[in-house]
Each structure stands twice: as structure tokens, then as C-alpha cells.
Amino acid sequence: MRQTLEKMAGELAITNRVHFTGVRDDVDALLPSLVLTVLSSHAEGMPLALMEAMAAGLPVVATSVGGVPELVEHRYSGYLVSPDDPRALADAVKELLDNEPLRLRMGAAARVRARDHWPQSLCTERMGALLRQLARSRVVGTEVSRPEATVAAAIAPIAPMKISSKLTPR
Question: Which end of the chain is least crowded, N or C, by CB within 10 Å?
């Protein structure tokens, strides 16, 4: 999909305004320089990258997969498009790049949604609950097969996870 989108960026004459960054480890330093964020995944859970971007006040253009529709309100805090429609993704990006008032309005809505739906206090509370569950699981000898999935679940705005020999939603 990246090659298709890079080609479309050229066709839409926005290559000087669009950067395909790939995986980065300096997102916190990068976010203030952005005007919007794009997630073009074919599969997702609850993407932390979108949560961070929205908390930074960036409107989102994303594919409507996994937990993404729970984060992004279509036409309010960003745009949701089909994962099989790179043209719709490119058109949504172009619309936001060309319409600053709309981009600012959606960015402000994204920030409010982030503040109201996953504040730091809630993430801290969930992480504390996770740590307590992990501590209890060691006491009873329960092995957690994928702790990284549990940690991700603890900070995402979803129902808490119950620790057992397998991870299962509570």
C-alpha cells in the first residue's frame, strides 16, 4: 500500500507536504511538527499511535479496521476509509491538507476525545491493576503467555483483561 500511496501523493501534487516516515522511536518529538496523522493498516488492535496523535491535537485519516473506529469519529475527529481503498485515503489526506479550518476543527475534536476517553489517570489506574494482576499470577504460579498484549490492553480504552493461563476478556 505504501508504494501506491507514494505514487498517489505524486499524482495529487502533495509530495512536498507528505512524509512517509515508517517506524519511528521519536514520536513525541515529531508530533508537534505534524498537521495530521495517517494510519493505513489492513489490521489493527487499538493503535497507540492514533491515541498519541489525537492527544496532540492532530486530526486522523485511518483505515476502518480493528479498534480504530472506537478511537476516530468519522467526519468529527478525522476520516475513516476502507482498508482496500487507497484513493479514498489519499483524497481524505488532501482534503485536510487543503482545508485548514476543517483540519483545526477535527484536531481540536481529536484532542477533546483523547482527554475525555483515555486520560493519563485512567491509563495509570489500568497499569496499576495490571501490575497487581501480574503479581498475583506469580503467587499462584500462573504463567502469562503474552505479557506485552496484556500491557497494551491495560493502556488502551477497552475493558480490563483477566489474567489466567490464557488471556481472556473479562
Answer: C
Residues 109 and 136 in one domain: no
- Cα 29 to Cα 137: distance, rounded to the nearest angstrom: 37
| 3-state secondary structure string across 120-155 | HHHHHHHHHHHHHHHHHHHHCCCCCCCHHHHHHHHH
Q: How confident is the model at residue 170 (pLDDT cuts 50, 70, 90)?
A: very low
Give the closest residue to 142 by CA, choosing from 117, 155, 161. Answer: 161
Q: Which position has the higher pLDDT, 24 or 142?
A: 24
Question: Cell 484513493 maps to which residue?
Answer: 87
The residue range of the domain holding 126 is 120-169
Contacts of 64 (CB under 8 A, 6+ apart): 74, 80, 81, 82, 83
pTM for the structure as a whole? 0.65
Whether residues 101 and 140 fall in one domain: no
Contact 76, 111 (CB under 8 A): no
Same domain, 75 and 136: no
The domain that holds 69 is classified in CATH as: 3.40.50.2000
Does 54 score more than 80 pLDDT? yes
Q: What percent of the chain clears pLDDT 90, i.e. is strictly above it? A: 44
